[in-house]
Design a protein that fits this description.
With 569 residues, the protein is α/β, with parallel strands linked by helices. 41% of the residues lie in helices and 19% in strands. The radius of gyration is 25 Å and the shape is globular.
Length: 569
């Protein structure tokens, strides 16, 4: 079977290696490609309704484009997209027909429909799959080849067809579905655990089947937070999992539809030898990473791991994975396109892709700053990202803030920091997602507990930050007052403006509510059951709607109760 799998991978690796070389060349003169890309987009779309409105055919330079075409948001395209989807009107914002409408995340209101053309899909595939293969093979060589993958990307989002006949749903799932017919050849978890129907405990299936497979080669996840959930589940439930592997059973307590349980159980066989190997590792405890011990052929992991996921990535590395397994941190992407790729492994910064989209940037620390192109970026500065893509969005505000960390050849290296629309500002203090995360992470480290996850609710009525914290392994001598004092200190350090507002009495000191165990896992499961894509489930750093508020506030306990449940033994 592995020969078949490797036969599939080899052509991809060869194409990926060529792409790596081509990327290296294009990053030496990125603005030549950026200018060419923009002029082609304008020429191709000059006869669209939007192109005629802004005179695309007469624009001959980047400067003219910036003068004539306004900066936009989704609302500027909503009417066009409705006409496309409902009335099958074409040539409105793009000369290319959409092949998909990507369903964006959102827990309230109507999800946005982001048009996705074949050109956008081709570029995405080139840099999300082809480039990844090339860089991994360049870095780890023949270790790229081998056994199956643990796929933690669950595909439960509904895919429908709109009146114009174009599919509407999470685009991330569409890329996985072609593998469904030969699923067992590639992945350890059976397809019933990935293309899961309601009432399927996918965490159990991922853990049970992957633990039974000694020859795993790699792990695939959307974000490292899901990898951490997977590892924590194994730590807490290893005895049940190993017993099921030993007996060839599925524990009766595991939630599964009857037909799925019957179908899976019929194919299982007792594996006492594998169970004995696993038990010997797990009985020693989790002070030493278990993954290299139980999967000696585990060679690499792929997943999103920007600054926003550092707490998850660090814990996976230190507690479960160790330092020898390669980690491919994916670059920055969204429904509108793929923006960056890494140039090495385990690097949070990644390089802009000169031939993917046309990029502009606004210095967020300079009031009234005009958008600039990538050749004007400065190391150490933070910029809001503006993109023009192949699907009909022009000078589109992503609301993402990027930090320029350096250059790869002549192309900027950037790191995602936070979303502009997720900044908390009760009295003009403007505390970013990054500052909120840093304060929580430092508090956990200084107080000696493990922070599973955290969110902040901006309480406008009481003018106060309310932190929701799910914590574990709490020192028995730690007091709630110590945690509060530490958090307030760290918030003040992360944002001096917040400290000034608290000192003057404009903002009350922060409050902490403690989540019940597995609250954040339950929240993700709830959203998946509501049809959200797993690729869209990013950390809830700022609680921004009533659904989130009601959910997290309802699942809290007092500090002493949480300490009794999760305290260090």
């Amino acid at each position: 079977m592995y020969e078949m799998l490797n036969g599939f991978r080899k052509p991809g690796v060869e194409a990926g290696s060529k792409l790596i070389a081509a990327f290296d060349m294009m990053t030496k003169n990125p603005m030549a490609l950026q200018n060419k890309l923009l002029m082609e987009l304008l020429q191709d779309n000059k006869d669209t309704e939007y192109g005629k409105k802004y005179g695309f055919g007469e624009i001959k330079s980047i400067e003219e484009f910036q003068k004539k075409v306004p900066i936009t948001t989704y609302d500027d395209y909503a009417e066009y997209i409705d006409r496309m989807a409902k009335n099958n009107e074409r040539n409105l914002i793009s000369c290319n027909d959409p092949v998909w409408y990507n369903k964006t995340s959102g827990t309230v209101g109507v999800p946005k429909k982001i048009p996705y053309t074949q050109k956008t899909r081709d570029i995405f595939d080139r840099y999300s799959l082809g480039y990844q293969r090339g860089l991994l093979y360049k870095t780890i060589g023949d270790k790229y080849y081998g056994g199956r993958c643990v796929n933690l990307i669950r595909c439960g989002g509904a895919i429908t067809k709109l009146p114009d006949g174009v599919p509407f749903g999470p685009i991330s799932e569409a890329s996985v579905r072609p593998f469904q017919q030969k699923w067992d050849m590639f992945f350890s978890t059976p397809s019933q655990g990935i293309f899961a129907v309601k009432g399927t405990d996918t965490r159990y299936l991922n853990a049970r089947y992957s633990l039974a497979d000694k020859d795993l080669n790699n792990i695939l996840c959307t974000f490292t937070g899901f990898l951490l959930d997977y590892c924590r589940y194994i730590e807490k439930n290893w005895e049940m999992l190993v017993e099921d592997i030993e007996k060839g059973t599925i524990n009766e307590s595991v939630e599964l539809p009857d037909e799925v349980r019957e179908e899976l159980t019929a194919k299982l066989q007792p594996m006492p030898e594998r169970a004995a190997e696993l038990r010997a590792v797990f009985e020693k405890g989790f002070d030493t990473p278990f993954m290299p011990q139980i999967w000696p052929e585990l060679n690499y992991i792929c997943g999103g791991a920007s600054a926003g996921f550092a707490r998850y990535t660090d814990e996976v590395r230190s507690r479960y994975l160790g330092t020898d397994v390669a980690f491919y941190y994916r670059g920055i992407s969204a429904s509108e396109g793929i923006f960056t790729v890494p140039v090495g492994l385990a690097e949070h910064s990644s390089s802009l892709i000169p031939d993917s989209l046309f990029f502009e940037f606004i210095d967020i620390d300079e009031e009234g700053a005009e958008p600039v192109t990538m050749d004007k970026l400065e190391v150490g500065k933070k910029y809001e990202l503006i993109v023009t893509n192949h699907s009909g969005f022009y000078r589109y505000r992503m609301k993402d803030v990027l930090l320029v960390t350096g250059f790869y050849n002549a192309t900027p290296m950037v790191e995602f920091l936070y979303r502009i629309d997720k900044t908390v500002s009760l009295m003009g203090e403007k505390t970013t997602e990054l500052a909120l995360r840093v304060a929580a992470d430092k508090t956990a480290k200084e107080c000696g507990f493990m922070l599973v996850d955290s969110s902040v609710y901006p309480d406008t009525e009481n003018v106060q930050y309310v932190y929701i914290m799910e914590i574990d392994r709490v020192p028995q001598d730690l007091t709630e007052e110590q945690v509060l004092s530490c958090l307030e200190k760290n918030l003040a350090e992360a944002n001096p403006s917040y400290a000034e507002k608290v000192k003057s009495g404009l903002i009350k000191p922060a409050k902490i509510l403690y989540s019940q165990p597995e609250t954040y896992v339950l929240y993700k499961e709830m959203l998946l059951m509501k049809g959200n894509s797993i690729a869209q489930l990013k950390p809830v750093t700022v609680i921004g709607n009533e659904l989130q508020k009601n959910f997290f506030f309802a699942l809290t306990e007092d500090f002493e109760e949480i300490k009794a449940i999760t305290g260090k033994k």
